[in-house]
Amino acid sequence: MTEPVEPLIPPASAVPAADGPDADGPDAAREKLLAEVAALPALPGVYRYFDAEDQVLYVGKARNLKKRVSSYFQKNHGGTRIGHMISKIARMQTTVVRSEAEALLLENNLIKTLNPRFNILFRDDKSYPYLKLATHEYPRMAYYRGSVDKKHAYFGPYPSAWAVKESIQLLQKVFRLRTCEDTVFNNRTRPCLLYQIKRCSGPCVGHISPEDYARDVGNAQRFLQGEQQELMDTLQARMMGHAERLEFEKAAEIRNQLGALSRVLHQQSVDTGSDKDADVLAVRVQGGRACVNLAMVRGGRHLGDRAYFPAHVEDATAIGTEEVEDAAERPPVDVQVLEAFIAQHYLDGGVPPLLVLSHAVDKALIEALSESSGVKVTTVHQPREQRRAWLDMACKGAELALARLLAEEGSQQARTRALVEALDLSPENLDTFRIECFDVSHTAGEATQASCVVFEAHRMQSSQYRRYNIEGVTGGDDYAAMRQVLTRRYAKLAEAAEKGEARLPDLVLVDGGRGQVAMAREVFEELGLDLGLIVGVEKGEGRKVGLEELVFADGREKVYLGKDSAALMLVAQIRDEAHRFAITGMRARRASVRTGGSRLEDIPGVGPKKRARLLQRFGGLRGVGDASVEDLVSVEGISRELAEEIYRALH
């Protein structure tokens, strides 16, 4: 795909502002926008709509930009979703491309990048794990997640970590490849337990030659690539050859390997036939939510499935259907969702040659996908035999995942509503009700950390969690720690909220009783914030779960919600998440402080090996810190310049 031409309408050309060129009012801004629409060319391209705050509303593609964009403004859409969106449009951008296929790819690239409000959006959590064979004289099998490096061999992607680890266990049983780190491998003097239980061939101590190990690696690769029958035929021929030469011990080893391989293949729950690499996609839509279930077949093995839940389904599908004038051309909602998933999920590559689909999709989408990926992609939406079994499994998985999601969301919404009613709150919108919860964690005053977790839109928002290292307070002084974290969290936020540039939470939970609430009250009074936002979660009698009471900063009496209260369940869920997040952060920080690893490795030129030598030589970080430059130079690999750098860093 070539680079698109510059936008016909530059970003700043139609931005209305109170003190700018559109100060005449909204009518003048609308007239300017309509004039720009009238000037659009009848060419394929992509258009973007922005609101007055310069937030992206919608990204769309068009075979004919002028015709498509004009259709939005030529009739009154009333109170529909598309009418609501159009009323918010303040400016637009367009990009002309050479073909509809290029428009399709650019559209979904922009959707993933800009997160528009009215498009079907699949979150970019495509961080799939791989099985890695690291380049080495004796290659190592490993679980891997991240960007691939061409110097190693990777197999996958797999839908889950469990699928990777199961594959590693299977390969250990059959081919006995090593899984240990190179540092362990290089320092072994006798084989480990895996050798004793026949899960490793013991290359670390020379119990297998490099040639024989390389042959096992090659066989493992053939297995992962789906050449199981060819592999078994090869092993069978080798076994017979050894037997004919009266090499019965070697023949017995291959016989055992064949037996293990046969058992592994027999245990596979799904026989994939001749198809080696394929993805099976099933979509279900219900209750305003959608689920796309992706099942993976790699190397002839069915690896399991993974469910995806897109955002903005109702808004996007309403606009997507209303913008098509001919009702016969309007794709069903489930087809729109499936097409959006295919375009966004495979945009960066990784598409297999076969897609088995629950619904037929636009051929132009598949052609564009083939062109961009360099893989000839074939689709089947009415499969037979084994492929039908795959699709039925994927459809059932989609139904179950969607039903589970709807049940969970219904339960969470009920809990949110119960808490709002129990505390007599009146949020503008229950779906945007926001709670922030704080907890402090340390071990006898060491490595104190505070956590802030966020609950919004009826679920925990892990991407908005924050940790705070507490400094300058007496170890174990939880009150001072809570004061510090609340001040750091809300000092700037309060100023921004006054200017209308930020939004304060609707409720602030602190894990603790009257003491912690009193400290939070002082901070909020200093910042001029509403004391009614603060609620403390005080442990009940005997610190038993379910007996917690809520303590208020504005003088209200304590409240016990009841052991089976939905409101208390939500409070406990958020409180426990804050506690978990604080503890994990504190433990990581404590471990770093005790080992001194981060301080040494932060010094340029000190890698893991030199760090290990230093700690071993001087007995720990304190010993390294007490060492002179001359002492440091005596360690293998430490030059005088590096020794001086280490000395300066630790003093």
Question: TL;DR of this structure?
Answer:
By secondary structure, the chain is an alpha+beta fold. It has helices at 26-38, 65-73, 81-88, 100-114, 161-175, 182-185, 193-196, 210-224, 228-244, 248-267, 313-322, 333-345, 363-373, 385-422, 478-498, 514-527, 566-595, 597-601, 608-618, 621-626, 629-633, 640-649; strands spanning 45-50, 56-62, 91-96, 129-134, 140-145, 153-155, 278-286, 289-298, 301-308, 354-357, 378-380, 434-443, 446-456, 459-460, 466-469, 507-511, 534-538, 549-552. Strands 12, 13, 14, 15, 16, 17 and 18 form a seven-stranded mixed β-sheet that branches. Strands 9-8-7-10-11 form a five-stranded mixed β-sheet, sandwiched between helices. A three-stranded antiparallel β-sheet has the order 2-1-3.
List the helices and strands and how they pair.
Layout: H1 26-38, E1 45-50, E2 56-62, H2 65-73, H3 81-88, E3 91-96, H4 100-114, E4 129-134, E5 140-145, E6 153-155, H5 161-175, H6 182-185, H7 193-196, H8 210-224, H9 228-244, H10 248-267, E7 278-286, E8 289-298, E9 301-308, H11 313-322, H12 333-345, E10 354-357, H13 363-373, E11 378-380, H14 385-422, E12 434-443, E13 446-456, E14 459-460, E15 466-469, H15 478-498, E16 507-511, H16 514-527, E17 534-538, E18 549-552, H17 566-595, H18 597-601, H19 608-618, H20 621-626, H21 629-633, H22 640-649
Parallel strand pairs: 7-10, 10-11, 12-16, 16-17
Antiparallel strand pairs: 1-2, 1-3, 4-5, 4-6, 7-8, 8-9, 12-13, 13-14, 13-15, 17-18
Helix pairs in contact: 4-13, 5-10, 9-10, 14-17, 15-16
